[in-house]
Amino acid sequence: MEGNVYIKVGNGNKTKFWKDGWIDQTSLRELFPDLFLICENPDARVSDCWTEHGWDISLRRLLNDWEVERVVALLEKLAGMIITTTATYKILWKHSKDGVFSVNNAYKRGLMGMTGAPKYNWNYFWKSDIPTKVKCFTWLVIKRACLIEVLQKKGRQLVPRCFLCNLTGNK
């Protein structure tokens, strides 16, 4: 799910500045580990670091020469972000226009990837992040596969019909 959602920070009260993936779905702790080590408050919220004049990032000590470039890179990364006091925090679904998750949309995304109408591209299907149980069940239903015969050949005592398609083992 993580790659399929994004955070709309809103007023920044619910988003941790260093630890949450609110910029490009990556935490600033991962992008700037050297600055994270010297930050004054690792659990600071975005709203704690934003003022009406811009970003105010508190560090525990003065910067060394080589760290100044890293702070500049951090500020460049933050340049497009503006925090408003009236907006609310939201987690949005990437794959819908309105950002609202639906099972139907997630199902279509799982079967077809990013483009086109649902096609049964089995290579993509088997390599997808869909749980294995769901993949196997879907494949059985679509292919109308009846595995009773195979299990009976292995000596298993089974009811002589498939519960999915109601066919006997002889097809």
Give an overview of the whole structure:
- This protein has 171 residues and is mostly helical.
- It has helices at residues 28-31, 33-38, 46-49, 65-78, 103-112, 122-127, 132-143, 148-153; strands spanning 5-8, 50-51, 54-55, 90-93.
- The chain has two domains: 2-78, no CATH class; 103-171, no CATH class.
- The chain is built from eight helices and four strands.
- The strands form two sheets. Strands 1-4 form a two-stranded antiparallel ribbon. It has a two-stranded antiparallel sheet with strand order 2-3.
- Strand 2 and strand 3 (54-55) form a beta hairpin.
- The chain starts with a strand and ends in an 18-residue tail after the last helix.
- InterPro entries: RVT-Znf (IPR026960).
- Residues 101-167 form the Reverse transcriptase zinc-binding domain.
Compact description:
The chain is mainly alpha-helical and 171 residues long. The chain is built from eight helices and four strands; from the N terminus they run βαααββαβαααα.
